[in-house]
Structures are given as structure tokens and as C-alpha cells.
Amino acid sequence: MWLVTETSRRPALLASSLTMGGGPDPKPEHLLVILPFGEPTNIFDRIRKNHPNIKITYKKQLYEGTWEMKPDIPIGLNEFHPSSSQLLASCNARLLITIPAADIYKDATILATLSALPPSPEACPNLKLIHFFSAGFVTNHIVESPIYTSTSIPLTNSSGIHGPQIAEWVIMTALAHSHHYSLLHSWQQNHEWGKSIDRKEFQTLRDKAGQRLGVLGYGSIGRQVARVARGMGMDVIAYTASPRTTPESKHDKGFILPGTGDPDGSIPSAWFHGLDKPSLHHFLAQDIDHLLISVPLTKQTKHFLGAAEFAILGRKKNAFLSNISRGQIIVQAELIASLEAYRANDPLRGGDGGGGLRGAALDVTDPEPLPPDDPLWDAPNCIVTPHISGQGEAYVDRAFQVLEVNLDRRARGEKMINVVDRKKGY
User: Fold this and answer.
1) Which residue(s) pair with 216 in the sheet?
2) Which residues contact 173 (CB under 8 A, 6 or more apart)?
3) CATH 3.30.1330.10 is held by the domain 2-61+100-161+394-411
4) 241-295 pLDDT per residue, tens
5) Residues contacting 408, CB < 8 A, separation 6+
6) What are the residue boundaries of the structural domains of the chain, listed by start?
7) pTM
8) Domain at 163-384, CATH homologous superfamily
9) Residue-level pLDDT at 99
10) Which of 191, 288, 347, 348 has its CA 20 to 30 A from that of 164?
């Protein structure tokens, strides 16, 4: 566990403690920052103050226009899904990505990036650390890159910075569904006080107190959603890839914003684990009212949930599903079928729910961007947003906070946080 205050409250004397007395001055470092954002000069000033030995070079990676494909872009950088070129063409989409020249990496010792990587190990002979500005890898080219597959350069991610804003999205969309916000909004737009016949929607409304949240992937995001859910009176159960049988194993050992998450893993009333379908099915059968999908996309979790899993969730509780992970975690067509089964047997109209899911909120889809004619847009009781749940004004600063923690720890010869396990893929 590594609790970090907001950077404005970071120790002002940290730099002097690392450079004055007790040993030689630290070696010169070159931090290369390649991001699709404006240059964060105030953050760079902060880094220089605490680490005067670090030279910083900033290059802006441009994502402009409306998704225009450029033929000279390496194919990996366009892998939003396996057939991105065809999809983007079908959407009349336009994307323009600028890629830094290979020689820009040759003097860098540290790289901070969203997706740009050196083309080969030879292009970055001095590179000692790569920090990613995402919790998971945003494109397939990263895990297929020779930097990932053929070097041992430490990789760190920004896991831990997304919890507050994504948890708010999860709860917001779940409440928008359960409180029939679309109906309420239509009444307001039409200047109506609501028809009495429609108010039965609200007479049968269930609040969250006493309901059960199942968190499939109890990482930093899942822990913050659990924290908020518990504050609403929900019971929380957690699912992880490996067993967490001791108090220590349940601790969050990554980056944690103060006052957020579940640092000691004390919120869940029960823990489950596994990567096989029987283990997953056992978890899903625990009378879950709301399932949060927050596992990373790996070979094991691709299409982890389909018709069989939705049937388990729909059998007793007609659960609500939230996906903030990756679209390929679920079989999308089978999710749509489950939602349609519920609509055809709506309990408000005398049905039994049809064994389907009563609703879903998806911030990720398969593919992305979602084509205009995709049936998911019209799936019943389904909220779709364009992969924006993790965005917010604090994103960049918090991602740099993770890097700064590791710069401090490297300078002291300590173990870094948020280190990526190449074998696991996260």
C-alpha cells in the first residue's frame, strides 16, 4: 500500500534530502514525455525542483481530426480492435496520429507515455524506466512491442488514479437506470408533471441498501466502487484471479489517493478467485444484484462473460451489469440477447424477467468506436458512453504523481510501485 497526498502537499524538502549530504549527487537523468495533452509546465517545474538532476523533454503526440487513418502509421498504433481500419472506414471516421521520430529516444533514461514506444531496443539504449499514463494498455501494440517482449526495462502504470471518477460513473449510471432518469428527464423536457399510470415505475423502485455488489476484479477501481457502494448500504463481494486468504494478501499495494479505495481489503464480506469458468460461475451465483466488471483484458479474460454467465446472473436477481474494463471481456451479442429477454418478460408488465439482465451500463464496447449501426445502441435498458468514465481534470496530475513517487523511490534505492508484471499483462 502506498498512500499519497495530492502533489501540492508533497514534502518541499524532498529534493534536498536526496541530493545534500550522505553521498554523491545523483546521476543525470533524461525524462522524455510523449503525451496527447498540452505541456504540463507546472508539473515539470515540480519535478525539476524535487529532482534537479532530471532533464525533461516534452513531445506532444497529436490525435487530431475525426479519426483519419494515415497509411504510414505502424499498424499497431491503430489497433483499437482487430479490424480497426475497416471499422473506421465504415464509420467515415478520420484519425490523424503523429509519431515521434525513432532517434528521439536515444538519450532518454525515463519515458512517460500513453502509447508511444521506441520501435526497437536499439533505439533506446539508455532507457531504464517506462511509465504509462493508463492503468491498462490502451492498444495491442504495447504488449506486442519488442520493448515489452524483448527487454526487461521496468514498466509502471497509472493504476490508482482512476478510482474516484470511474466510481462516480458506475454509481451515476446505475442510479440513472434504477431511478428511471430517462423517464424523469422526458417529463421535464415536455413540461409534464408525470402521468399517474407511469408512476408505478417508482412505486416498485428498490434502493441500494441491502443489495449485493459483485466486483469482478478487485483492483483500485473496484475498491473505490466498493467503498461508495458500502456507503449506500450495499453488501460487497470480491473476485480476484489469485486467492487472497491472508489479511496481508488483501491489501492494496499500489498507488492510493487519500480517503479512497479499500487499502486493507476489509470491505468485502466474501472473497472468491480463479480464472476458470467453474470458479467464475460459483461467484456469479452468489445472488448478485449489480455486477461490476473491472478485470484487465488478457487472453484468459477475453469473452469471459457470455450467455452462460448472463443466465446465472439473470436467474434470480436479473442483475444489473457495469463494464468499465474492455469491451472484449463480454460477448456483446449475447449481452444484447439477455437484455432483450428481460424486456420481453418485464416484471412491471406481469413477466418474470425471462432470466435476462435488467440493465447494463457500458463505458467500453467491442469494437471502439462503436459503429452507428451497431445494435448495442438500441439495446433495451442499456447505457452506452464513449470510454470517458476515467477522464477528469485531475487525470494528468495524478498520473504524474505515480511517476513522481517512483522517481523518489528510485533515488532512495527502494522498490517502485505499480510495476507491470509482463507475464500477467498488467
Assistant:
1) 239, 293
2) 322, 361, 383, 385
3) no
4) 999 999 999 999 999 999 999 999 999 999 999 999 999 999 999 999 999 999 9
5) 14, 18, 50
6) 2-61+100-161+394-411, 163-384
7) 0.84
8) NAD(P)-binding Rossmann-like Domain (3.40.50.720)
9) 59
10) 288
Radius of gyration of the chain (CA): 23
d(CA 58, CA 65): 22
Strand intervals (E) in 232-355: 235-240, 255-256, 270-273, 290-293, 320-323
- 218 CB contacts (<8 Å, ≥6 apart)? 226, 238, 239, 240, 244, 262, 265, 268, 271, 294
Q: Is 62 left (phi over 0), alpha (psi -120 to 50) or beta?
A: beta
Whether the per-residue pLDDT at 414 is higher than 80: the answer is yes
CA distance 263 to 84: 39
**CA of 116: how far to CAs of 17, 61, 84, in Å?**
33, 8, 18
Q: β-strands 63-64, 96-97: how paired?
A: antiparallel
With 0-12 / 13-18 / 19 or more C-beta atoms within 10 angstroms meaning exposed / middle / buried, residue 282 is middle
Cβ neighbours around 125 below 10 Å, total: 11
Q: Report the C-alpha gap between 77 and 85 in whole angstroms.
A: 11
Report residue 237 as a C-alpha cell: 463481494
Matching residue, cell 514506444: 117
- For the sheet with 359-362, list strands across it: 270-273, 235-240, 212-216, 290-293, 320-323, 359-362, 382-384
User: What integer best gives the mean pLDDT of the chain?
Assistant: 87
pLDDT (tens digit, 9 = 90+) per residue, 326-353? 999 999 999 999 999 999 999 988 899 9
Name which of 47, 62, 61 is nearest 15 in CA terms: 47
Count Cα neighbours of 249 within 13 Å in the Cβ-side half-sphere.
9
Cell numbers linked to 13: 524538502
Asked if 365 and 332 count as a contact pair (C-beta separation under 8 A), the reply is: yes
What is the grid cell recorded at 145? 512491442
Mean pLDDT to the nearest integer, 144-164: 95
Is it the case that residue 296 has pLDDT exceeding 70?
yes
